[in-house]
Amino acid sequence: MKNSIKNTYFPLVGVGILLIGSVVVGTVFAWTNPSDNPPAATPVITTTNGNIGIAKATPAYSLDIYNASDPRVRISNGTYNYFLGNANMFLSGALTNSFGISSSNGITFSGNNTTGSHMTLATDGSVGIGTASTDTNYKLTISGKGVKAESANTQPAGYFNNTGGGPAITAGTGGITLGGVNQTAWPMPAPAAFRGALVYTSSPWPTLGAATFTTIPYAYEKYDTDAIHNTVTNPARLTVPAGVSRVRLVFKLAVGSNPTSAGSLSVQIKKNGTTNNTDSAEATFPLATTYRPSVMVSSPVTNVIPGDYFEAVVYNSTAALTGVVSWFGMEVIE
């Protein structure tokens, strides 16, 4: 009889414990109105169709959390915190390790609850904004809207450098706007129009006298862009026109017959009637009876003012020279 009672008692105890455990477990997941923190009539933790809800009576997702004032999840070790929710995901605390997201197939970000890609991080590390198709030749590919850079410090708002030999910037359709001016092509500027004068003597010119300084007049003009020469008034002069500050002069003289005796031939380019300045040019050449002399003198680029004039002067130390031809030119530099 005692053995029969024992055998009956212990199964009954097990059933009682099982029932109590069921009541306790059911209470944990269906706790609806305790006397302290959880809000009245709102379950703290519920399960529906395999979904778990926290403060959500009918969870629609695997984990469905609801909080009307601050819907955030915090993971903390007491010093450092990770927060997820309320339209943000961030961490707080001076962590020595980095915070990262990793995927073997790239990462796609969308900012308006759509399935489209607003930003893509590809597996090769390239980034696409407005496109899921990044260009593997570049670290950043942007589609749709452009890029705006603003800076409030002394450094440039943008800096481009290419050490691989290619251009730092290539402009496609639309060109580039600099200082408010849009440029769709970059043609080479046209060279400045040539300005100057070239004058010459009749052929042959009258004889160069012996032991005499001769200022050579020029009766003909090959070209004259700015009224630099006048064949009637002061035909020996080349005069600096208005708006000119620098010129260069060149002078050539050739003799059509051999000198009858040895000597020298001096040629000068005089500025305003004198050679006693750094803006003139002068040279002396030997004369021999065995050849016909031909000489040329050029000045450096010379500072001038409008109205300055230049003349070519020759000194022959030997007997008279015949068959002389000459030309004289001025080139406007600026």
Plain-language structure description:
With 334 residues, this protein is mainly beta. The chain folds into four domains: 2-71, no CATH class; 72-96, no CATH class; 111-142, no CATH class; 196-332, Sandwich (Jelly Rolls), CATH 2.60.120.40. The protein is 8% helix and 33% strand. It contains one helix and 23 strands. The protein has one helix spanning 2-29; strands spanning 45-48, 51-54, 63-65, 72-76, 81-85, 88-92, 107-109, 119-121, 127-129, 140-142, 176-178, 181-183, 196-200, 212-215, 220-224, 237-239, 246-255, 263-271, 281-287, 294-298, 302-303, 309-316, 324-332. The strands form six sheets. Strands 13, 15, 17, 20, 21 and 23 form a six-stranded antiparallel beta sheet that branches. Strands 14, 16, 18, 19 and 22 form a five-stranded antiparallel beta sheet that branches. It has a four-stranded mixed beta sheet with strand order 7-8-9-10, with no helix packed on it. The protein is rod-shaped, with a radius of gyration of 50 Å. The termini are far apart. The relative contact order is 0.10. Residues 1-36 have low confidence and may be disordered. The chain crosses the membrane at residues 12-31. Keywords: Membrane, Transmembrane, Transmembrane helix.
